[in-house]
Design goal:
It is a single chain. The chain has five domains: about 15-130, PAS domain (Beta-Lactamase, 2-Layer Sandwich), CATH 3.30.450.20; about 185-285, PAS domain (Beta-Lactamase, 2-Layer Sandwich), CATH 3.30.450; about 295-360; about 365-510, Histidine kinase-like ATPase, C-terminal domain (Heat Shock Protein 90), CATH 3.30.565.10; about 520-630, Rossmann fold, CATH 3.40.50. It has a five-stranded antiparallel beta sheet. A five-stranded antiparallel beta sheet has the order 7-6-10-9-8, sandwiched between helices. The protein starts with a helix and ends with a helix. It is about 50% helix and about 20% strand. It has about 625 residues and is of the alpha+beta class. Its EC number is 2.7.13.3.
Length: about 625
């Protein structure tokens, strides 16, 4: 709005300045629409108010003048208009003189503007022409009068030259104002534009494509429906109509191409058009969703903590009393009742633990994550829990680059969904995890199965805590916990049925990990061939490398070379000592990553895991890159 007020002030000052000029002046844009004119322009040609308002069409003005005989009493009006519109569209400099029906003689001088359109100056030269005629008719008889008129003509010419100079300065200032305004708006992270009364863009800062990718940048003259596309236009149309009716409107909508969240402001202007400002608020929305979920969890924790404490005490008393009853000499049928009561009480305790998990402190810790590695680990974890007749497949089309995610929370959520899918399929079926990117905004993860699908009731209530279709075997907290995890990350979750079963669709913010900022890496490996391979990987990741093949060499380099920022060492090395000894000697002075081909059951592997992150050979560049980013952070 400040920009709008500033533009109005500039327009008012410019108009006031132009009205001081003795000549008539008009400026039309590249679409032959009036940008500005002075009062003398209206007075000279007797134009009605609607033809001197900004946006008035050059075609309508010429038609008005031709209909009044401005260009001669004879001739076809439509042809006159067509000829002059064609000449105007050529945007060529021109100068002409003509006599108007009222006997007035005027000169017309036009000059094109840098971005299309032109400025035209109309000067009343009737007196000058009369002087010229007089000079020709009575040059000998009226030499004295000739001299006077010559001096008058000279003065007139001087005034005309001064006026032309003023007009050129006004033109220069207008050009500078337009350039400054455009530069200011183009630097803003928003699309700023103006629509005329017909819904066509007559101004744009050419940022539409950055706010809504896939749309054109050069939209001057385009109707808003063509620039946005029909689907997006249908969503903004009611708000646009409201603005054309004189009421401002601010609203948000989700566009179809890559599900960006867009905030749009429509502000009516006095001339009948509409100012437009559009901003991509996707990241703001994601952060807002995460904050809302954090607040909900805090409220839930406050409400349930006291109840959980009291309920836990009651369960403890019940279990204690049942233990005493179990020792008493009671009828045999009482044993079953006691066992059932104990089992139910223990299940209540487990339920309390699940509630604590849902309402406890679960702040996401995003880090550079190799999504391919995470999904492969998930497949390995989930497969042993599936029946023999059930398959698990993973389809991942994400770019092979680290993403900023909380790998633990994401893997826990997906494992929960896989186990739910397993229960829905029974003893056989197929579970599919598919992952792809939606533009550069979202990661979409779909877990689908070939089970019986969601019931209508489940589609409505499955995300509510304690709703379950598994009877006593379910707690009703699995899907709500997944929903909670996704919302905490700023994402969304949807349930749907498919022709072959059901699917759960998760959307998480797509945030590529920043480039590695690791400095000099000390590579410690005693196998020449492997050391060469690891060196190439590190160089490919942008890390300068120095090398060692033993503990002794490595410790010497760490004490002598000050620029080392990370140590990557094999566990087993030639000579005395291991990579673990390097970690112990450095005592946290430098980040260390260990690598090994030892099985995880090996005691040395177990010992290493307590000291530093361990990469199992073979590993991919992406796995090493993700770990380096984490350690460098």
């Amino acid at each position: 709005m400040n920009l709008e007020i500033s533009e109005q002030r500039i327009k008012a000052m410019t108009t006031a300045g132009l009205n001081l000029i003795g000549q008539a002046l008009s400026i039309y844009d590249s679409q032959l629409r009036l940008v500005v004119s002075n009062l003398r322009f209206q007075e000279m040609f007797g134009l009605p108010d609607e033809l001197v308002e900004p946006g008035a069409l050059f075609h309508d003005t010429i038609h008005f003048l031709a209909s009044r005989g401005e260009y001669g009493p004879d001739g076809d009006v439509a042809e006159m208009v067509e000829t002059r519109v064609a000449q105007a569209l050529a945007f060529e400099p021109h100068y002409m003189e003509r006599t108007r029906p009222n006997g007035q003689v005027i000169s017309v001088e036009g000059a094109p503007l840098p971005n299309g359109g032109w400025v035209a100056v109309y000067t009343d030269i009737t007196r000058t022409k009369r002087v010229e005629d007089l000079l020709r008719a009575r040059s000998e008889e009226l030499s004295g009068q000739l001299l006077g008129h010559a001096e008058e003509l000279s003065a007139t010419n001087r005034k005309l030259a001064a006026t032309i100079t003023a007009l050129e300065e006004a033109k220069r200032q207008l050009t500078e104002i337009e350039a400054r305004t455009r530069m200011t708006t183009e630097m803003m992270p928003a699309h700023i534009a103006h629509l005329d009364t017909d819904g066509r863009y007559d101004y744009s800062n050419r940022r539409l494509s950055s706010v809504m990718p896939g749309r054109p940048s050069d939209i001057l003259g385009l109707h808003i429906s063509k620039a946005l596309g029909q689907s997006a236009y249908d969503r903004v149309k009611p708000h646009l109509e409201q603005a054309y009716g004189g009421q401002p409107s601010v609203f948000e909508f989700t566009e179809d191409q890559d599900s960006r969240r867009i905030r749009v402001s429509f502000t009516p202007d006095e001339a009948g058009g509409v100012y437009v400002m559009s901003v991509d608020i996707t990241e703001e929305t994601q952060a807002r969703v995460a904050l809302q979920q954090t607040r909900r969890r805090a409220m839930a924790a406050q409400m349930t903590s006291g109840l959980a404490h009291d309920f836990s005490n009651l369960l403890t008393i019940i279990l204690g009393m049942q233990a005493r009853l179990e020792k008493m000499d009671l009828p045999k049928e009482a044993d079953q009742l006691i066992a059932a009561t104990q089992q139910t009480a223990r299940r209540g305790g487990q339920l309390l633990n699940r509630i604590a998990d849902m309402t406890g402190n679960r702040t996401p810790q995003p880090q550079a994550t190799d999504m391919r590695g995470l999904l492969e680990d998930l497949r390995i974890l989930a497969t042993p829990s599936l029946p023999r007749g059930m398959g698990l497949s993973v389809v991942n089309t994400l770019p092979n680059k680290p993403l900023m995610l909380d790998p633990g929370m994401v893997q826990d959520a997906l494992l929960n969904l896989v186990l739910n899918a397993r229960d829905a399929c029974g003893t056989s079926g197929q579970i599919t995890i598919s992952v792809h990117a939606i533009g550069t905004i979202w990661i979409e993860i779909t877990v689908s199965d070939t089970g019986s699908g969601f019931t209508p009731e489940a589609l409505e209530q499955a995300l509510n805590p304690f709703f379950t279709t598994k009877g006593s075997d379910g707690s009703g907290l699995g899907l709500p916990m997944v929903y909670d995890t996704v919302k905490l990350a700023g994402g969304d979750l949807n349930l749907r049925n498919t022709p072959s079963g059901a699917s759960v669709v998760i959307r998480l913010p797509f945030r590529p990990a920043p480039p590695s900022q690791a400095g000099l890496v000390l590579l410690v490996e005693d196998n020449d061939e492997l050391r060469s391979q690891f060196r190439e990987i590190l160089i490919g990741l942008g890390c300068p490398v120095i090398e060692a093949s033993s503990v002794e060499e490595a410790l010497t380099l760490t004490s002598d070379v000050e620029d080392i920022t990370l140590v990557l060492s094999d566990i087993r090395l030639e000579g005395e000592g291991t990579g673990i000894d390097i970690v112990d000697h450095l005592s946290g002075a430098l980040p260390c990553i260990l690598m090994t081909s030892l099985p995880i059951s090996d005691p040395l592997h177990h010992q290493a895991l307590k000291r530093a992150p361990v990469l199992s050979k073979p590993f991919t560049p992406e796995q090493l890159s993700a770990l380096i980013r984490t350690e460098a952070a």
